[in-house]
Specification:
Elements lengths: L2 E6 L9 H9 L2 E7 L10 H4 L3 H20 L4 E4 L3 H11 L4 E5 L4 H13 L4 E5 L21 H8 L26 E2 L16 H12 L7 H4 L13 H6 L4 H15 L3 H23 L20 H8 L6 H13 L4 H14 L4 H11 L5 H12 L13 H8 L4 H5 L24
Helix pairs in contact: 4-5, 6-11, 10-11, 11-16, 13-14, 14-16, 15-16
Length: about 450
């Protein structure tokens, strides 16, 4: 009798799910688990990184949908609020588990958890797959240790490699063995919501957005609109579901190919694939550099600004800086859980270069707020702006006045999000901690 465990993480879907296909063929009984610790794991920034209510709701949406989809396949989603290194050994010692199925997660802490389980249970077949990105590691034309030091080099090497087609849906999964453990409980699906948010987590909402987007002509103008600060149709909006794993990068690529076959390919439609390649690069970047993703000096070991001004940081978080366009972006983030790619670049540049705050605090705040938080993309992009990551130019300091003229010349975005409302005085204390008199 073989018993398998499918260990879910940022891959909350049943479609294009390689773990389920292998489990369906290889084991007699199956347990599906999700480990849901309450706090992020880089402890120095825990208080900043704890998920916002919006991000938590989006995750619960995804778990609801996954539980229902597994139920339709004859399975149950079991959830624990303990870390995997603590909870899974209890399960493995209780039942004669023979197989564990896990997708490769780029984050250092996620990889440490898998490595610990692999070391502690050598008799269990631990099978790791590459279901979160476009490519398996075996498809890379270089060793991971030789990952190109810039995205441009990576793109040129990868853009002609064929992306594997998505897997069809599984029809039925093996039954679940009887067991009872205090740390695990079946996920309790919440009642259906009467009000729908713009972003609802889960596979159904993800597939709806995928279908709706490619049913329009928007992919053919994507490159021209992707840098807009606001507007639902100006970008694909796939990123929250990609980060949750309720949709796969391969599913998006497959739909893009169908669209290009029907409507013709152009630079804009290619740019959707270009952005997927950026995400792919940061995933391998995180896998390559491990915990250096969180280091102040980054992968470049370059000395950076490590100051922390609590008052400035707080004002940045809540959109109360002398920079209206940044204020509008931050208020949009706090209200919706989403910010445009251009907005993220401007907000990061402002915190690092104009306010003089250590970039890691900004990355941690984004982690807490973004519905599309992805450890590799978030921390990799912050390193890029700070000049300690993969940017060959050594960082990006944006002129906020020029950026405002380019992307919000009429101040419509600033006015919509009240970016012009802020304290005139940035600091209330000077360098010696003496109070600064308010400006008359």
């Amino acid at each position: 009798m073989s018993i398998g465990v499918v260990w879910f993480g940022n891959d909350l879907r049943t479609a294009d799910q390689v773990m389920l296909w292998h489990a369906m063929r290889e084991v007699d009984q199956l347990i599906c688990v999700y480990c849901d610790p309450l706090l992020p794991q880089h402890s120095a920034l825990n208080s900043l990184s704890s998920p916002s209510p919006k991000r938590d709701r989006f995750l619960r949406d995804g778990l609801d949908e996954l539980a229902l989809n597994l139920q339709a396949l004859g399975q149950t989603l079991w959830v624990t609020q303990k870390h995997a290194q603590v909870a899974l050994p209890v399960l493995f010692n209780e039942l004669p588990i023979t197989h564990v199925y896990r997708n490769h997660h780029a984050g250092w802490y996620e990889q440490q958890a898998l490595n610990q389980i692999t070391f502690d249970f050598p008799d269990i077949q631990i099978k790791q797959f590459y279901g979160l990105g476009l490519f398996a590691q075996s498809q890379l034309p270089f060793a991971l240790a030789e990952l190109p030091d810039s995205f441009s080099k990576f793109r040129k090497m990868m853009e002609t490699i064929e992306v594997t087609a998505p897997l069809p849906d599984a029809a039925q999964l093996p039954p679940m063995p009887a067991f009872s453990l205090p740390d695990f409980s079946p996920w309790q699906v919440r009642p259906a919501k009467t009000e729908q948010a713009r972003f609802n987590g889960g596979e159904r909402a993800a597939l709806t957005q995928l279908s709706d987007y490619f049913a329009t002509d928007l992919p053919s103008t994507y490159k021209a609109t992707r840098n807009e600060l606001d507007g639902w149709e100006n970008s694909t909006k796939f990123s929250p579901w990609l980060a949750q794993g309720s949709i796969s990068a391969r599913q998006i690529k497959a739909c893009l190919e169908v669209y290009e076959g029907d409507h013709g390919a152009n630079e804009s439609s290619y740019w959707i694939f270009f952005e997927l390649l950026w995400r792919e690069y940061f995933h391998w970047y995180a896998s390559r550099y491990g915990k250096r993703l969180f280091a102040a000096n980054g992968i470049q070991q370059r000395t950076t600004q490590r100051s922390f001004y609590p008052e400035r940081f707080r004002k940045w978080c809540y959109g109360n800086t002398p920079y209206p366009i940044v204020n509008a972006c931050m208020k949009q983030l706090n209200e919706t859980g989403f910010m445009s790619n251009r907005g993220r670049q401007l907000a990061a540049s402002c915190l690092i270069y104009d306010l003089g705050v250590d970039w890691r605090y900004g990355a941690a705040y984004f982690e807490s707020q973004l519905l599309d938080y992805d450890v590799a993309s978030n921390w990799g992009n912050w390193q890029y702006i700070a000049g300690v990551g993969a940017d060959p130019r050594g960082g990006r300091h944006f002129n906020l006045e020029k950026q405002t003229q380019q992307y919000d010349p009429e101040h419509h975005f600033i006015e919509k999000w009240y970016g012009h409302q802020f304290d005139e005085q940035l600091d209330s204390m000077d360098a010696a901690d003496w109070p600064i008199s308010p400006k008359p």
